Amino acid sequence: MKFRFPTVLTGLPMTGLALTGLGALAGCTGTPPPAVATLGSLPPPGTLEFPGGTAPTEALGQEIAAQLVARGFTPADHGTYLAQITTSRVPGKAGLFVGNGNPDAEAQWLVAPSPSRSIGLRVATVTLSDRATGRELYRVIVSEQRRNGKPETDERIAQAVAGTLDNGAAPAATGAASR
Questions:
Q1: Is the Cβ–Cβ distance between 34 and 121 less than 8 Å?
Q2: Does residue 136 lie within any of the structural domains?
Q3: Is residue 148 situated within a structural domain?
Q4: What is the CATH number of the domain that holds 156?
């Protein structure tokens, strides 16, 4: 009697190749890495002024402010740089779309929409501007997909921001932000 592999839903024999394919699919179910988009170069350390005179109050914003301080920036009432740190949750199937003010130029996604209503985005933006001129010197936007209703942690977003601060600037865009 010849041995036969058991059949699966389709009625086709399951081979070693099919088992390998199922194993590979199981490995693809993890969360994609945070998407990172940067503009400009991180300026040399100096004094930072936060809007309203206070550092962010949310935990992720506080972590990012601490990362800037760890890299030599110092909070001050009238700093060399204006540091704007924002964090947000974007609902599923929504994104952040921006034009550049020129109607003839192509607008772009800062954060591409998530593929599903059940998957939202957690977004952190850090902008450093020259306080005297108002010119934006550096911006990083980090976004990560989040399944609605699941426990969340901002550790990967904080690490991605730290990576861009360590490098001074990351590639123009990676992940979902480059779509």
A1: no
A2: yes
A3: yes
A4: 3.30.160
